From TrEMBL:
Name of the protein described by the UniProt record: alanine--tRNA ligase
Enzyme class: ligase
Organism: Aegilops tauschii
Enzyme Commission code(s) on record: 6.1.1.7
Keyword Aminoacyl-tRNA synthetase: yes
Signal peptide: none
GO biological process terms on file: alanyl-tRNA aminoacylation; intracellular protein transport; vesicle-mediated transport
Domain annotation Alanyl-transfer RNA synthetases family profile: ranges: 99-514
């Protein structure tokens, strides 16, 4: 039996989570691409997202969905068009990065954000969406674009690709036509036709490139309004070339391009801005680099933009780390956040500490250097983002306090570490014991930094002996593989960076520790609850939901647990439906049997107890059915719940009952012992409930007495 769409969605989300943790995912692709062909948006959306992340153009499964993607783009459903175009944008980004292998764009912090690969950020020159909002001179961009980055804007998705205009035939156009097979006779290209008043020449380079692929009548010039891209009055700017697609076909749609016609839409925008190889070379970062250099120790050279092996001592990387992190922290604090011990606030604390550590160890900066950069950053960005100026004092104060606290911890910890490492070296060893780590009292990531700095006690190339959190325990494991980040190797040594795949580990899973223990505990509660029923199950579900909502556990894990709770709720609803049917059958049978006995005995009324808890529907149905069966017979049905000590009561008296006998005249005094209240009376039916169910026998006796007096 195949998976349902809901089960497929859960399955592929888990696949994506595994992929995000860094593992190869070579299974479940069929379920992923099948969701793209689904008719409902929720399934199609998941299919597109996961396919974009997991598959490339060489994957056989991706080829299976090309027709679906093409149909979604050509079709009339704008939502599906957006999904398809977004996937194309993501796929193009990956292809562009492969074209320009000399530069590897990597996303860094975006206002208040944080790149998951914090330890690797700034090692390469980064291309950064956020930088497009920075402060540049409006007309400073040169139109000599042979070395300019192209910013690909597509369906509200901005992806910065370091590719050249001349590479269009290998990237964007070929991707649209050769991979997604959009018909070429429905594609139009636009380019910047120049602006004499602004002193801007036509973009003939883009025109000439497009004429290699499209006829002259489908390569169209436009002015600044449509084909000169700019971010506000002071933001980055540059000529752009766009790709438009005629959704109808078999016509000349040139007049509809850039004319707000829904049948001829822009699907791609290529923007050429700034004669810079990196956003770190722009006037956003250069003032920061100058300020950092003034704070650096003697002999530290100015920032030179070197990366990789050219960046000896990782000095330029340290410049980028410090500059990028002061930007991230400044915006985050201005937006109301601040470094702390949990969640996103802990991420900010790690960012700050990383910047301070790099400043001291790589740039030889003095204590307190980091917070002093706030003044420079606010001066650079404050005009564009006034919230920085409004919160400048607060930003600087928080960073200064955090920086001082960390420097104090770092100084004490390093002294302890140096003593422990020197002791190990004197004894001919190379591995710190768990007990030594407990003495140092520093987090594992700081110890890792210190181990790399203090080569006398290194961790690289050693057997897989891991320092456990338990201060007097050491764990050993078998090395199954060595991974460099791009390939598996047979051996490694020296200063190479590599990772070890171990047979077993003493460490918690990703985002483990107490969070994972809590998640396991909640899962156990859910499994136990599935064995319960009725009110006990309902109460347990409420308790689990409260615990789960407040639990600080990974979002994917929490989503899985909430899905399991939903199944419990479904179980409870089904149980209630079943119990409701059974209660009605039970109450009706009890009432009819009692009414039949009363009639055979010549009694003019019937008072009974139906054991169906507080199920008012069942009690009411019992009264109605009995009165239908035995016309003219007044009847009152009581039911109680021991757990809550409450009672529900329904009574029915025919309109033509003798002696003016009315239902409320019977119900109201009868339920007084139950501390009850009643109401109704329409059509001879009334209901009540009481808060003292233990006195139900007394109430039933009173009801019998009242009916006997009235009816004889």
């Amino acid at each position: 039996m195949g998976l349902s769409h809901y089960e497929k969605k859960k399955y592929v989300w888990k696949m994506l989570y595994i992929h995000m943790l860094g593992y190869d995912v070579d299974f479940g692709h069929m379920e992923t691409v099948s969701l793209i062909s689904a008719l409902k948006y929720p399934e199609k959306q998941v299919g597109y997202i996961v396919t974009s992340c997991l598959l490339n153009e060489n994957n056989d499964f991706l080829r299976m969905v090309i027709n679906t993607v093409r149909n979604d783009i050509i079709g009339r459903n704008e939502t599906y068009q957006c999904l398809a175009l977004t996937m194309m944008s993501v796929q193009l980004t990956g292809r562009a990065q492969r074209i320009r292998a000399s530069v590897e764009p990597e996303r860094t912090s975006v206002v208040g954000g944080y790149h998951g690969r914090l330890a690797g950020a700034q090692q390469e020159i980064t291309a950064d969406i956020f930088t497009m909002r920075q402060k540049y001179a409006r007309r400073s961009c040169a139109l000599q674009r042979s070395d300019l980055p192209i910013i690909v804007e597509m369906d509200s998705i901005l992806a910065v690709n370091l590719i050249q205009p001349r590479d269009l035939d290998r990237s964007i156009y070929s991707w649209i036509v050769k991979v997604y097979k959009l018909p070429t006779d429905r594609i139009y290209a636009t380019y910047f036709g120049g602006d004499d008043k602004a002193g801007l020449a036509p973009d003939t380079e883009s025109k000439d490139i497009w004429l290699k692929y499209l006829p002259n009548e489908r390569v169209l010039p436009f002015g600044c309004k449509d084909n000169f891209w700019e971010m506000g009055d002071t933001g980055p700017c540059g000529p752009c070339t766009e790709i438009h697609f005629d959704r109808i076909g078999n016509r000349d749609a040139a007049s509809l391009v850039n004319n707000d016609d829904p049948t001829c839409i822009e699907i791609w925008n290529l923007v050429f801005i700034q004669n810079k190889m990196s956003n770190y070379d722009t006037d956003v970062f250069m003032p920061l680099f100058d300020a950092i250099h003034k704070l650096a120790g003697a002999g530290i050279q100015p920032y030179s933009g070197k990366v990789g092996s050219d960046d000896v001592g990782k000095v330029d990387m340290a410049y980028r780390v410090v500059a990028d992190h002061i930007r991230t922290l400044s915006f985050a604090i201005a937006d109301g956040s601040q470094p702390g011990n949990e969640g996103r606030e802990y991420v900010l604390r790690r960012i700050l500490r990383r910047a301070v550590h790099f400043g001291h160890q790589k740039l030889m900066a003095k204590q307190g250097f980091f917070s002093s950069l706030v003044d420079v950053f606010v001066r650079v960005m404050g005009d564009v983002f006034p919230e920085l100026k409004d919160n400048e004092k607060k930003i600087k104060g928080i960073i200064k306090e955090e920086e001082a606290s960390f420097e104090n911890t770092l100084a004490k910890g390093y002294e302890r570490f140096k003593k422990a490492a020197d002791a190990v070296k004197e004894n001919g060893g190379a591995v710190l014991s768990g007990q030594a780590r407990g003495t140092i009292r520093l987090a594992a990531n700081l110890l890792s930094w210190m181990l790399m700095l203090h080569r006398s006690c290194a961790i690289r190339g050693l057997p897989a002996q891991m320092i456990a959190r338990n201060s007097n325990t050491r764990y050993s494991s078998v090395v199954k593989a060595i991974y460099t980040g791009s390939e598996f190797i047979a051996s490694a040594s020296g200063d190479e960076d590599f990772g070890l795949v171990l047979e077993s580990t003493s460490f918690y899973a990703e985002q483990g520790g107490q969070a994972m223990k809590l998640a396991s505990s909640i899962e156990t509660d859910i499994n136990e609850a599935s064995k319960l029923d009725g009110a006990t199950l309902e109460k347990k579900i409420g308790s689990i939901k409260n615990t789960l909502d407040a639990a600080a556990i990974p979002a994917a894990r929490k989503a899985d647990l909430k899905g399991n709770v939903s199944k419990l709720e479904d179980q409870l609803r089904e149980a209630k439906k079943k119990m409701g049917k059974e209660n009605i059958q039970k109450a009706v049978k009890t009432a009819i049997d009692a009414a039949e006995a009363a009639v055979s005995e010549g009694k003019p009324f019937c008072v009974i107890h139906a054991d169906v808890g507080l199920d008012t529907t069942a009690v009411r149905e019992a009264v109605v059915k009995a009165m239908d069966r035995f016309k003219g017979l007044p009847i009152m049905v009581f039911s109680t719940d021991e757990a809550s000590n409450k009672a529900v009561i329904y009574a029915g008296v025919p309109p033509d009952a003798p002696n003016g006998f009315k239902v409320l005249d019977w119900l109201t005094p009868s339920i007084a012992p139950l501390k009850g209240k009643g109401g109704g009376g329409k059509n001879g039916l009334a209901q009540g409930q009481g808060s003292d169910g233990s006195r139900v026998k007394e109430a039933m006796e009173l009801a019998t007495q009242i009916a006997s007096m009235k009816l004889g």
